[in-house]
Specification:
Helix content: 25-40%
Structural class: alpha/beta
Shape: globular
Strand content: 15-25%
CATH superfamily: Vaccinia Virus protein VP39
Number of helices: 6
Bound molecules: S-adenosylmethionine
Number of domains: 1
Radius of gyration: 16 Å
CATH class: Alpha Beta
Number of strands: 8
CATH topology: Rossmann fold
Order of helices and strands: HHEHEHEEHEHEEE
CATH architecture: 3-Layer(aba) Sandwich
Oligomer: single chain
Distance between the termini: 31 Å
Largest sheet: 8 strands, mixed
Length: 202
């Protein structure tokens, strides 16, 4: 399978080298919680990592499921939830194969897509569409991390750069309603940033 493996991510968690981790929920969570995601929403967080966003949504009254295939990530997220007494679920599973028991209202996608090799993006996009009920929302943070090697066609990551043109092709208008750009840029301490886009599944 192309791209990073479970041992790759597990090794990062074990060594404590998790440069993507903000040590708290992404700043866009609060923005979207302020009006776009009502309490009671059934929400998935694929590639949930340490679980900061899962905890923030659970705290705000959502019915949340985090999914991650790395045991150390699931352990960290579960322990965060237990420490805070929050009732959210964390599932150890591969997002390219797992499915919820029934479609959900919303997905919060932060740095799971950019963690997957682009060879798997089409499969992941099929999953995102299948997980959501019609009219459900995809709260997406598209990682902007251009690399010089792209000039020679090299595919480098993670994080793999989520070019907005590629995102439009991956999540096409036939299946998704896109808001008009420009989109807010959400900074990350790594120097990269994410474009925040709220899509609606048709
Ligand atoms: C860059 S980290 C981001 C974690 C979290 N979303 C955050 O922003 O802190 C990517 C996470 O996705 C998980 N991941 C990568 N590929 C996955 C897959 N195919 N299925 C499930 N989880 C995956 C990794 O284990 C890792 O925890």
């Amino acid at each position: 399978m192309a791209g990073p493996t479970i041992p790759f991510w597990q090794g990062h968690f074990d060594a404590g080298t998790i440069p993507w981790d903000r040590g708290g929920p992404g700043p866009q969570v609060a923005v979207w919680l302020d009006g776009d995601i009502p309490p009671g929403t059934r929400l998935l967080v694929p590639g949930c990592g340490s679980g900061w966003d899962v905890a923030a949504f659970a705290r705000a009254g959502m019915t949340v499921t985090g999914v991650d295939y790395t045991p150390a990530a699931v352990a960290a997220a579960s322990s965060l939830l237990a420490r805070e007494g929050l009732a959210a679920e964390v599932v150890l599973a591969d997002v390219l194969a797992w499915s919820p028991p029934r479609p959900v209202d919303a997905i919060y996608e932060q740095t799971c897509l950019c963690a997957l090799h682009p060879d798997h993006w089409t499969r992941y996009a099929v999953q995102l569409q299948a997980w959501l009920r019609p009219g459900g929302r995809l709260f997406a943070l598209f990682m902007q991390r251009q690399r010089p090697g792209a000039r020679e066609g090299l595919i480098e990551g993670p994080p793999f750069h989520c070019d907005i043109n590629a995102m439009r092709a991956l999540l096409p208008l036939a299946a998704w309603d896109w808001p008009k750009p420009p989109y807010p840029a959400v900074p990350h301490h790594s120097g990269a940033f994410e474009l925040a886009v709220m899509l609606t599944r048709r």
